[in-house]
Amino acid sequence: MSEGGAPTMDTVPPSKAQSPPSTSVAMSSAASNVFGTAELLELILLDVDMRTLLLGQRVSKDFNNTITSSPSLQEKLFFRVKRNTIVRGENPGDPEVNSLLCARDICEATGLVFLHVEVQRTLSVRYGLSMSIGFGTLMRIKALKDEDADGSWRRMLVVQPVSRTGDFWRLSYESDLGPQWSTYVGTGKWCDAMTLEALIQTLLKRVGEGKDMPWSKVEQEIYSHLDQLEAEEE
Fold first, then answer.
1. Which single residue of 30, 60, 129, 160 could bond 85 by disulfide (Cβ 3.0 to 4.6 Å)?
2. How far apart are CA 110 and CA 113, in angstroms?
3. What is the model's pTM?
4. Are 199 and 156 part of one and the same domain?
């Protein structure tokens, strides 16, 4: 206090306008600036796991727009074929399988019960993928239409291809007798059915046409398919 009783500059508390912003407010503002910039948000999202990225579409309109419009993020979610995935005549190394489909809860939601992918070399020194894909019972597969007709998993690729025409799959479904019994519905090229939805529809169509077969005929059918691929390469 001064002698006149008036407060001096040393004793006057700072006004609210002079107070520095709180840490939480500053961080919130910085986060808004980052997430509001599509390029920066894309870089951040490229570093998160698939499940988090998939759920991130629900966070906000900005998140959804960034994820759906980014080719790189769509590739990471297996909604789009990677631009550098096709290998011509070279060993591609380990196949890039959709890791989200290995999660138990996702398998239950999609009816997928078995997925095995390996690199296979043909006689003409061209590499391709050999995929074994198994689904649940026919009752379970048909129920998916009513349970989750618009599920985003339907648009997902099972694997990033090595060759659109050389990669092939084998489809099967579980018998009502139990998971140890399954019925084979034949092979197909990766380009014939690339997504889970396309694979399910192909399976149901072949069953409806009576093209399912016992496993005793599988080996002969697979070799016939490989011979056809070799003939197309010549």
1. 160
2. 9
3. 0.73
4. yes
